[in-house]
Design brief:
mainly beta
Length: 202
């Protein structure tokens, strides 16, 4: 759900921390913590941007851990100023993690055209209907369904202690989609996604 780091606003951080604190006083097994991931978006001129994330992976000192393996689809434009729960209280070993990856199976966008209407673009095989109808062109995307999209941590690494954690992931629509060069009539998706850590102690 920008490879230039973007800070989460204080209001978003407080909201995320409050949501986590309200989950109760359950204690995680020794050596683990409860990690939640919330997806948000910075505003953009695009009117719809549906993305399907099929898997969320965390990679670090203890290896690779799958945090979610069920498809998650959202219109990123609806997340401006709020968050969606992508992962909730996943049991994760404490330690340092250097990569968070999203496997993205496809996307579609509805972009404003010169006449004031919208044109729809979709990746190959992706249903464009949520974006408003039939696709007028192709949304080009690298192989994120296989290699995954690496989320950049605002602090270069995600350090998990025995305190419960929330990671707010900002999928910047304004910087993630752009017209392809020339007169191809295509758009290109180069996701710009940054993760900022919010800690809430028990």
């Amino acid at each position: 759900m920008r490879f230039i780091p973007r800070l989460v606003t204080p209001a978003m951080a407080l909201a995320a921390a409050a949501a986590l604190s309200s989950c109760g006083d359950e204690v995680s097994p020794a050596g683990t913590t409860a990690l939640s991931i919330k997806l948000t978006d910075a505003p953009a001129d695009i009117r719809h941007a549906f993305v399907t994330i099929t898997q969320v992976e965390l990679l670090g000192e203890s290896g690779r851990q799958v945090l979610r393996d069920e498809p998650f689809t959202a219109d990123l434009l609806t997340l401006a100023g709020r968050t969606a729960d992508l992962v909730t209280d996943a049991e994760v070993l404490v330690g340092t993690y250097h990569e968070l990856r999203f496997l993205i199976s496809g996307a579609c966008i509805a972009a404003e055209n010169e006449s004031g209407g919208t044109d729809i673009y979709a990746t190959d095989g992706y249903d464009p209907e949520p974006c408003g109808g039939e696709a007028a062109g192709t949304l080009v995307s690298p192989g994120f369904a296989q290699s995954g999209l690496k989320v950049v941590f605002a602090s270069d690494a995600l350090v998990l202690t025995d305190a419960e954690e929330v990671l707010v992931v900002d999928y910047d629509v304004a910087q993630s989609f752009g017209r392809a060069a020339g007169e191809s009539g295509r758009w290109v998706m180069h996701p710009v996604v940054t993760g900022s850590q919010v800690e809430a102690s028990r």
